[in-house]
Amino acid sequence: MQDTVDMADDPDYEEEEPSFSDPEDYEDDVDDEEMLEDILREKPLEADGIDSVVVVDNVPQVGPERLEKLKNVIHKIFSKFGKITTEFYPDADGLTKGYIFLEYAAPTQALEAVKNADGYKLDKQHTFRVNLFTDFDKYMTISDEWETPEKQPFKDFGNMRHWIEDPDCRDHYSVIYESGERTAIFSNDAKEPIVAEERARWTETYVRWSPKGTYLATFHQRGIALWGGEKFKQIQRFSHQGVSLIDFSPCERYAVTFSPLMDTKEDPQAIIIWDILTGQKKRGFHCESSAHWPIFKWSHDGKFFARMTPDTLSIYETPSMGLLDKKSLKITGIKDFSWSPGDNIIAFWVPEDKDIPARVTLMQLPSRLEIRVRNLFNVVDCKLHWQRNGDYLCVKVDRTPKGTQGVVTNFEIFRMREKQVPVDVVEMKEGIIAFAWEPNGSKFAVLHGEPPRISVSFYDVKNNGKIALMSDMNGALTFVDTSDCTMMNIAEHYMASDVEWDPTGRYVVTSVSWWSHKVDNAYWLWTFQGRLLQKNNKDRFCQLLWRPRPTTLLGVEEIKVIKKDLKKYSKIFEQKDRLSQSKASKELVDKRRTMMEEYHSYRETTQQMYQEQKSARLELRGGVDTDELDSNVDDWEEETIEFFINEEIIPIGDL
């Protein structure tokens, strides 16, 4: 210790610095990309400035007297995408040449100009074509020799709609339990659910079915996985770090995902639209909040999708993912919008502004023609509710009439299939809790009142221009036949947090989710008449979702024929139901079905063999075809034969 102190106090002593050099035999196998990945990601790309330049073609050719006006118009259009640092208008013989060069402050701004301004229609004679200056070099160096694209192997995922071919027409539903640790797919059966697939840690949060039931989406920290087919193989995956929400286009061609993680200004990552078939990213969007998910709403056929921002409604078209007509709609004060489920029509509403009344507008696309405008007064709020087929639109209008206190609710019913779209009004003075259309038809139900007394009213939109009140009732869990408003059953599921109807309307599930309550977690299966079939208790049950069915391929006339002959089919169904009442009956039915399938297989094989041996039979029988009893009827000879059968002698006696 003393030696150490003396050396430290010695003014001539120089402490030896530690060596940070690698040993002579050390081999550095870690590259910069692996060690400095986060830093290199922010490294500026090498550029010579031309990647910030765009070339605009089809610009009007003008002389010096109109050049300044043209520059102002061009600057107004293209400055929306970023700061323009340089403008160059080539000219010859006193006129501009019809194309210009614009340089932006950053390459990303130039790219944004190309995406949004290409195809911009200035007037009837001039439609802009916008390209990056660097693209010219790329296109000039394209080889003249054709290279055959590499053939991609076909991936067979099996029958993607196999569950629809179930002979007993059993629907699927997904169940998450054990607080998310296990996920199962069940076939719905009146006696007990049948497991179709079950996996541990299949998803990290929850699952979501696509609109037609083709895909099951599972959530993971790194992205989304889609599953389908008979064995639920992985069909596709989308890499989106921290993804928390998903939505599908109605046609199942596109998926939209959202991640709350920060994205860059140059490369939007908050919302991404994906092509489901190829797995390719179609376009990214910025998004600060997902409070009103889905951010994008789709048209019924998937050709358009729209997004609302302050005072603006942006409508995009597929597959280009660009703005319709290259511009958004300026709608001051727009509050909400919704697509028709049956037509390319958008409904939106705007609140009152000073002396201008609130209004609901119906707009047809892509023409942007306003087919109906409805003015409303003293409006507090509006909600848009489309009937499933798009035949009716209900606008729930909360109003505060002058001279009165409290809120009055009007239901404005737009008849979409009639000329000039007439509107019927239903007024209710009680507080409205919920509104819903029936799945198919013209009836709707309204929950109204204040707890603990909550009532439900049923209405029917008649063809004679009237809306009839069908019934007004209250109850905990009430099953009602709305054809005559008879109450079929009243039941209760204590603490039930969710109610889910199956796609056919034959069954309904009530459930207590672990996400809402930590006790009594289970789901109960009921018939549409209110008869309880099953109580399925699952440890820490979280979620049940029915698998949607695609739209039927049957036409209107074919459905009418089936409904007409429903009694004939009912006898078959009733017989099946009786056989399935017990497990023994089920085993017997399965055994008979197996025997019948074996018989059909044997019969088909034997018939095929019989046909193959026909030529040999003809040869053995001298060309006579004995397969048909009447095949050689012309060669027959008719002969009558009489023969003695019996003789009996009966004595009569004396008469």
CATH H-tier superfamily of the domain at 50-138: RRM (RNA recognition motif) domain
Shape: extended
CATH topology of the domain at 50-138: Alpha-Beta Plaits
The structural class is alpha+beta
User: How far is it from the N-terminal to the C-terminal residue, by CA?
Assistant: 166 Å
Plain-language structure description:
With 655 residues, the chain is α+β, with helices and mostly antiparallel strands. Among the domains are: 50-138, RRM (RNA recognition motif) domain (Alpha-Beta Plaits), CATH 3.30.70; 558-597. Helices cover 17% and strands 34% of the residues. It is built from ten helices and 41 strands. The strands form eleven sheets. Strands 18, 19, 20, 21 and 22 form a five-stranded antiparallel sheet that branches. Strands 2-5-1-6 form a four-stranded antiparallel sheet. A four-stranded antiparallel sheet has the order 9-8-7-41, with no helix packed on it. A hairpin with a 7-residue loop joins β24 (345-350) and β25 (358-364). Mean pLDDT is 86; it is low at 1-9. It is found in: Cytoplasm. Component of the eukaryotic translation initiation factor 3 (eIF-3) complex, which is composed of 13 subunits: EIF3A, EIF3B, EIF3C, EIF3D, EIF3E, EIF3F, EIF3G, EIF3H, EIF3I, EIF3J, EIF3K, EIF3L and EIF3M. Keywords: Cytoplasm, Initiation factor, Protein biosynthesis, RNA-binding, WD repeat. Its main location: cytoplasm. Pfam families: eIF2A, RRM_1.
